[in-house]
Amino acid sequence: MPELIYIVGLIVILLFGIIIFILSRYRKCPSDKVLVVFGKLRKGRDGEFRSAKCIHGGGAFVIPVIQDYKYMDLTPISINVPLTNALCRQNIRINVPSSFTVGISTEEGIMQNAAERIARLSSQEIQELAKDIIFGQLRLVIATMTIEEINSDRDKFLAAVSANVESELKKIGLTLINVNVTDITDESGYIEALGKEAAARAINDAKKSVAERERDGSIGEANARKDQRIQVAQADAFAIEGENEVKIKIAQSNAVRRQEEAESLRQAIAAEKVAEANALKEAYMAEKEAEETRALKEKATLEADTIVKSEIEKKALEIRAEAEAEQLRRRAKGEADAIFAKLEAEARGNKEILMKQAEGLREIVRAAGDNANDAVKLIIADKLEELIKIQVEAIKNLKIDKVTVWDSMGGAKGSSTTSNFLSSLISSVPPLNELFKMAGMQLPEYLGVDMNDDKPDAEEAVIVETE
User: Fold this and answer.
1) CA nearest 436: which of 384, 395, 375?
2) In angstroms, rounded to a whole number, what is the distance separating the alpha carbons of residues 241 and 245?
3) DSSP structural state of residue 49
4) Which residue from 10, 240, 358, 394 lies 20 to 30 Å from 64 (Cα-Cα)?
5) Nearest residue to 86 via CA among 160, 145, 164
């Protein structure tokens, strides 16, 4: 009996020990860990043996001797990546210090990769391995982007980094939890220049906005004065307003063009001094626009005050000039009418004279028996006294101070050579008989003698001295 009790007790103790042992080989997996069971495992769903079995949440029985287990910690690992001298797409080396948070993934396939590759590594070893992967992928992403994209579009940069880095981390069973880029700098100062440029642009935009508001106020004030002046001189005010608006549009267009040119120049030049110069240029342009606006305001005020007065004086001068011109036109018209009347009267007088002369000639012809030749002879006979007077006038003014004559009496038939000289002198005057012959008339013999037949002898000598 005591032996039976001993045997039963031994069996109970053995069973209890076996139960305790079996229970001790059952491993539960905490929520912040992954249980990896390795050793001889059954085939998986795909019909192949697996190198390890990963369990997250729950538990598994670890067969003694043929199986073993290990926990992989799911605690996130923070990795500081002080990346320097990374070459971007613009061939500019930049510094991108960043912080990555990684951890072992709980996805089925990725957990298997972690169990196979990093299950026995310490947290420090996992961190170094992940850092090497992150360094390479981060440099690769930076090489495909420009500084502007990295600096201004952080979301795009972080998305590219997350996509590249996470795909590589999954190969060793890690997942990317968070990416934080602390700061981006470069040795040339390009990014810092971009920051200064953005700050300067914001300041310039603020100055420009203030200048535009002042300009709008000034233009509104000028327009109010213009509306007041329009009642007196609408055309001039509209012209001034149109010119001012055109100048403002030209100035705005030039400002936009200069801003675009300056923006292109800033993108092409990677130097701090050039960026600062461009920022200063924009500041100066904003100040210039403010000064131009103020000048336009003063100009509008001055033009509104002076141009209207000048136009009034101009119109007064034009009215006076038109009045004087009208007086001159009327005076000239009166003088022209007087001259025309005078010439018309003279023409009528000449016409009357010619008509009277024509009537007189008709009477002479009628008196000559309608014989034109006889009528001409009567007219010449009437003018005979005047013709003789003309002949006398030909030698009337001939001045002979002294005449010395040696007369040899050798003329024809013993005539005096002196008489022959005087006769020749008289014959040099156009003969009256020749005049009558040209008119178809014949003088009586007692009025004319042909004196050209008597010629002086060769021996006669005549000397005429004149003083």
Assistant:
1) 384
2) 6
3) B
4) 10
5) 145
Measured distance CA(448)–CA(388) in Å, rounded: 12
Cα distances from 41 to residues 38, 188, 261, in angstroms, run 7, 59, 71
178/175 Cα distance (integer angstroms):
9
The rounded distance, in Å, linking the Cα atoms of 54 and 41 is 12
Neighbours of 372 (CB within 10 A): 10
Q: Cβ(271)–Cβ(193) under 8 Å?
A: yes
Amino acid (one-letter) located at 313: E
Q: The domain 75-187 is classified under which CATH number: 3.30.479.30, 2.40.10.120, 3.30.2000.10, 3.10.180.10?
A: 3.30.479.30
Are the C-beta atoms of 55 and 35 separated by less than 8 Å?
yes
CA 315 to chain centre: 37
What are the CA-CA distances from residue 101 to residues 73, 135, 181 (Å)?
A: 14, 14, 12
Query: Using CA atoms, how far apart are residues 328 and 350, in angstroms rounded to an integer?
Result: 32
Q: Give the C-alpha separation, 135 to 98, whole Å.
A: 10
| Residues of each domain in the chain carrying CATH 3.30.479.30 | 75-187
Please report, as a single letter, which amino acid is at residue 219.
I
In angstroms, the CA 67 to CA 127 distance is 28
Could you read off the pLDDT tens digit of each residue along the chain, which spans 467 residues?
677 787 888 888 888 887 887 777 778 888 888 888 887 776 556 556 677 888 887 778 787 778 788 888 888 999 998 888 888 888 888 888 889 999 988 888 888 888 888 888 888 999 999 999 999 898 899 888 888 888 778 888 888 888 999 999 999 999 999 988 887 887 766 766 666 666 677 777 777 777 777 777 778 777 777 777 676 666 666 667 777 887 888 888 888 888 887 787 777 776 777 767 777 888 888 888 888 888 888 887 777 677 767 778 888 888 888 888 888 888 888 888 888 888 888 888 888 888 887 888 787 778 778 777 777 777 777 777 777 777 667 666 656 555 565 556 665 665 666 666 656 655 555 555 665 565 555 655 544 444 444 444 433 333 333 33
Are 278 and 266 contacting, i.e. CB atoms less than 8 angstroms apart?
yes
Sheet holding 52-55, edge to edge: 52-55, 33-39, 67-73
